[in-house]
Specification:
Elements (H helix, E strand, L loop, with lengths): L1 H15 L4 H12 L3 H14 L2 H25 L26 H16 L4 H19 L5 H50 L7 H21 L11 H29 L14 H29 L15
Length: 322
């Protein structure tokens, strides 16, 4: 394995021999498409502005992928190219955690290929593949991943995407028939299983967001009735403005909640060197913080959109199975 990593390091150096400031800026922009901020923008955008059902399934798939990736990083604890034992000079940016598998490569493949599957024209699948290749290449160019990390991320992302296409119709049918109680129980159970193995506080984030998103989607379906498109009765131009208003309003609330919770929730200060006595409190509120963000995105923000007249109400009363 060590020899493979050394060969990967040689490949990184060869790629970086073509480095230039403009190319580095381009690679930083490309790599940002597979980063957490990109997911925090794109996933709510799909849910709020295009299709709440597809958006919820996409978000849950991406969050599961992020959880699995972080868990494997800590479990396998593989090095990165810029570690002292290899070559610190190749690292153009700093990264935390282990290197294998590449989270950018893995989760971007899950997200972009699921989105491309919704679109009829085959060129969108080509675009998705190209984006995944470019994001993977950017991780090698920036010296934050060995090529094997990227290949591992693509393989794992492909397996998750394949499982999604295979299981999603069956799971959707099961939860539709089971009603809200089954959905809420399954969501809570999944989040519980995701935090059983907790090598680091960061693994709590996707599990918490998964719980909040899943519960919020159930609340929306059962009580709120938000539908992302085709329900406002407005002209095409006004509908476009309404969607833009939804995204700006929802994003403002999400980031306000994100930053306010860091300051206001007890224990948040434990993240940056507070005494160990605060660590347990911090973990509880760290989990609560991202669960609330998931709940905001899936239920609270849609309820606000309806209250502000930015969306029409989709009235589909759901019968609870006896």
């Amino acid at each position: 394995m060590e020899e493979i990593l050394r060969q990967g390091l040689d490949l990184i150096r060869a790629v970086q021999s073509f480095a230039s400031p403009p190319l580095t800026l381009l690679m930083l922009a490309v790599t940002s498409l597979g980063s957490l901020p990109a997911y925090m923008i794109l996933l709510p955008l799909v849910y709020w502005c295009f299709d709440e059902k597809k958006g919820s399934r996409l978000a849950l798939a991406v969050l599961f992928s992020a959880w699995l990736n972080l868990s494997l990083k800590f479990l396998l604890d593989q090095p990165r190219p810029f570690f002292a034992a290899y070559d610190p000079a190749v690292g153009f940016v700093a990264e935390r955690f282990g290197g294998f598998p590449s989270g950018h490569a893995q989760t971007s493949l899950v997200m972009f290929f699921i989105i491309a599957s919704w679109l009829k024209k085959k060129r969108y699948r080509f675009i998705a593949a190209l984006l995944c290749l470019l994001i993977g290449f950017s991780r090698v160019y920036l010296g934050v991943h060995f090529p094997t990390d990227v290949f591992g991320g693509w393989i794992l992302g492909g397996l998750i995407t394949g499982a999604y296409f295979l299981l999603e119709p069956r799971l959707t049918k099961f939860f539709e028939q089971g009603g809200p109680r089954v959905r809420f129980t399954a969501c809570a159970a999944a989040a519980f299983l995701m935090i059983l193995y907790k090598p680091s506080d960061e693994v709590l984030m996707p599990a918490a967001a998964f719980l909040g998103m899943g519960l919020g989607c159930g609340l929306n379906k059962r009580f709120i009735g938000f539908k992302a498109r085709g329900n406002s009765g407005k002209s095409r131009g006004l509908e476009f403005l309404s969607r833009g208003g939804r995204f700006l309003t929802g994003a403002a609330g999400m980031f306000l909640l994100l930053f306010a919770s860091e300051k206001l929730l007890p224990g948040a200060e434990g993240r940056f060197g507070a005494p160990a006595i605060f660590s347990a409190n911090y973990r509880v509120f760290y989990f609560l913080r991202f669960a609330l963000i998931g709940l905001w995105n899936s239920a609270a923000a849609p309820a606000l959109f309806l209250a502000l007249g930015l969306a029409g109400k989709n009235i589909e009363p759901e019968e609870t199975p006896e």
